[in-house]
Each structure stands twice: as structure tokens, then as C-alpha cells.
Amino acid sequence: MPAKALPHNPPSPQRHAKVEAAAQRARLVQQASTSRRVLTRASLPRRLIRPPPPPAVDDPMYMHFMDVITRDLGALALQSLAQTFIAGPSSISDLPSSLPVEIDGAFPVTHALAIFSPANVRINVFPVHETILRVHCMTLLPFPVVDNIPEDHVPVVFLSLPHPESYVPISQYLYTHRQDVLFAALCPGVQAFGHSPFLSSTPQVRLTKALVVSAAKSLRATRPVIESMHYIHGLWHNMVVLGIHDDGMWEVVLLAYSLYALAALAPSH
């Protein structure tokens, strides 16, 4: 007698959506992992794609927590960051487990972040606050606990990024949520965003077609277009690898890249 077929229960729409989102994130990470090879061929995509955020990012409690971090801690932490000096070696092999730091401010830094590229052993060391990075970077592993370090030292944490050169504007945005500052770093001379920090209640910027065309022409006339696209592509690569899903940051990065892509297509005369 033939075996009795087991009943088939199709996945729910919610589960199917989660599986699809996870698959798309995996595809983007894979795409990012090959981006350095793509850039060496001077071939850039026409547009950048934002990975779908994990369910936690859409949680109202998470968004409220991010707003509180931005309003109440971001500026205070950034002030302490500016008052902190860390001197470290330039090679991974010479870096100890902790570094001396001149700690100042009401919200002292917690770690020394040693950033390097897989293709280069040279490192750059930055003072950081673990809380600021952890709430924004979904794929960042918890920082290891280092015992028995001197009182005036902070632990060293290694972080491999595909494009270390663009870490500074990423860090500045994570502390301030200032879209205008990030956009000015990527598209100097073009005005598109207000000066207030981006919150979950901030409306999306709306640009007229005339303003977009004017901005693209301005960038073509004043900026190295392809080099700028490479830089923004590297910054995008870092955001994908770190799991950054801040709406305001993605809005700036996608807009900036699209303006340069439009500028690259514009006639040279």
C-alpha cells in the first residue's frame, strides 16, 4: 500500500516576506564582498540598492530609542569624542590590546576602534562609544571584554571595513543624525537637507526635477564625478557590511549617488 502523503502547510505571508528579505540582504552582502574587484575595473552600478531592514528596525520602540539617543546623547558623546586623543601605531602587528587615552568630557569614550581593510595591514585608530555604534550597526558583534588594563587606557577593538576611507562621515552621522552635514561631505555646494537632526518623524526630502538637474550639472562642473561615485559606493559598501538601517542616512547616500550618476551621463558641453 502506498505511503500516505503528509499534509503540506504553505508558509504564512509574513514568514515568506521575512525569508525574502533575508535572502535579499544576503545577496547585497555578497555583492558588496565583490565590489573592490568591480571598482578596479572602473565599472559602477547606475544606482545603489538599500537592503531591506530587519523587523526590529520597524519597531516603534526601537525608533523611539534611536530618537532619544540622537536628541539626548549624540551631541554630548560627539563633544567627548572631539576632546579625546588616542595615539596608536599604524600597523596591525604593532597594536596592543589597550591604548592610553586622554579621557575628557561628560560621556567618555569606551574603546579604541582599529579600522583596516582586508587588502591592507595599515590601520587607523578612532575613539568610539560602543553604545552609539551598537544601536546603529546591526551586524556588529558585541565588543569583547578586556580585563586588567590600566585606568587611563581603553580596550582596542579591530574592525575590518571594505572602505576605511569613508568611516569618518559615517561616524559623524551616527552621532549627530545631521543629514545636511553628511550630504555636504558627499556633494559640496548642493543644498537639499535642513540643519535639524534626522528623527523618525522627519519627512522625506522632496526635490523638484529642476533642482535635481541643476545639482547634477553643478557637481559635473566642480567635482571629480567618477572618483566621487567610487567614494560613495565604498561608503555604501561599509553600510551594508555594518548593517546600518537608518532612514536618514540611506536617504542621503542614495540621493548623492544618484546625482553623481546623473552628472556622469550629462553631456560634457
Task: Write a concise synopsis of the structure shown.
The chain has helices at 13-33, 35-40, 60-82, 130-136, 167-176, 179-186, 209-222, 225-242, 247-265; strands at residues 85-86, 98-102, 111-117, 120-128, 153-160. The chain is an alpha+beta fold and 269 residues long.
Descriptive notes:
The longest helix is centred in the first third of the chain and has 23 residues. The N terminus is likely disordered. With 269 residues, this protein is α+β, with helices and mostly antiparallel strands. α6 packs parallel to α9. 47% of the residues lie in helices and 12% in strands. A hairpin with a 2-residue loop joins β3 and β4.
Q: What gross morphology would you assign?
A: globular
β-sheet strand percentage = 5-15%
What does the radius of gyration come to?
21 Å
Separation, N- and C-terminal Cα atoms: 80 Å
- What is the number of helical segments per DSSP (H or I, 4+ residues)? 9
Strand order of the largest sheet: 1-2-5-3-4
- List SSEs in N-to-C order: HHHEEEEHEHHHHH
Note the main sheet: 5 strands, mixed
Mean pLDDT: 82
Tell me how many strands there are.
5
What percentage of residues falls in helices of 4 or more residues? 40-55%
